[in-house]
Amino acid sequence: GKRGFIFDLDGVIVDTAKYHYLAWKNLANELGFDFTEEQNEAFKGVSRRRCLEILLELGGITVDEAQFEQWLHEKNEDYLSYIARMDASEILPDVPRVLNFLKENHVPMALGSASKNAIPILEKVDLLSYFDTVVDGNKVTRAKPDPEVFLIAARDIQVSPENCVVFEDAVAGIEAANSADMISVGIGDPGVLSEAQHVFKDFTEIDIKFIKQLVHI
Ligand code: B16
Ligand code: MG
Q1: Whole-prediction pTM
Q2: Which of 29, 76, 140, 164 has minimal Cβ neighbours within 10 Å of its Cβ?
Q3: Average pLDDT, the chain
Q4: Residue 2 assigned as binding residue
Q5: Cβ within 8 Å of residue 101, ≥6 positions away
Q6: How confident is the model at residue 96 (pLDDT cuts 50, 70, 90)?
Q7: Mutate to test the pocket of ligand 1, among 12, 40, 50, 115 (most ligand atoms within 8 A of CB)
Q8: Are 15 and 49 within 8 A, CB to CB?
Q9: Cα distance between residue 99 and residue 158, in whole Å
Q10: What positions constitute the catalytic site (predicted)?
Q11: What residues flank ligand 1, with Cβ below 6 Å?
Q12: In this predicted model, what pLDDT tens digit does every residue of 99-131 receive, in sequence order?
């Protein structure tokens, strides 16, 4: 069947994962505890709300709903201050090479992200026009590792799940792709992403031959 490609955003197309990390770390520090990069692995691909729940568990802090909402807001404002300075130079190396190849070959492409900030980020780095659909945190009710985000993306591009190829940097995202019966490609550390069907350190390691095989061309 016809193949389609689904890309995660943070940590795959752009390195906004580092800005999420900084904003969570700033909040943790303000609340009197530290937050390490290792702990941040569990935040990748996970909804903003779930991240704050985990952060507060790490700090041993319990709060009421109003305080929770306020810290969510504060973290996002801090994150957006990093995003405001982004431009196309922050697209990860060799991502345009792969996106351009797929576009030239008319392969359907979707974005599948947990982020509620996905569209403004794609606009900032000038990649919005590449995607036939953007399925983001505003459209999804169940966060990764639930497969909902990728199943909606597959439906939008009219490609059956088993013919979808998902690029993901998060453990939760690889789990979501696998349970949707899609082909999972991990971007990052093979030790962390051991559940992925294929793993590459980054896009510079991806040969166009590999992409051609996946697209059947
Ligand atoms: P926001 P992805 C995810 O994006 C991030 O990996 C995750 O760390 C973040 O908490 C989530 O988006 C929500 O983002 O606060 O911008 O709505 O990796 O699924 O593209
Ligand atoms: Mg990600």
Answers
A1: 0.94
A2: 29
A3: 97
A4: no
A5: 208, 211
A6: very high
A7: 115
A8: no
A9: 19
A10: 8, 10
A11: 8-11, 17, 20, 43-48, 51, 76, 113-117, 137, 170
A12: 999 999 999 999 999 999 999 999 999 999 999
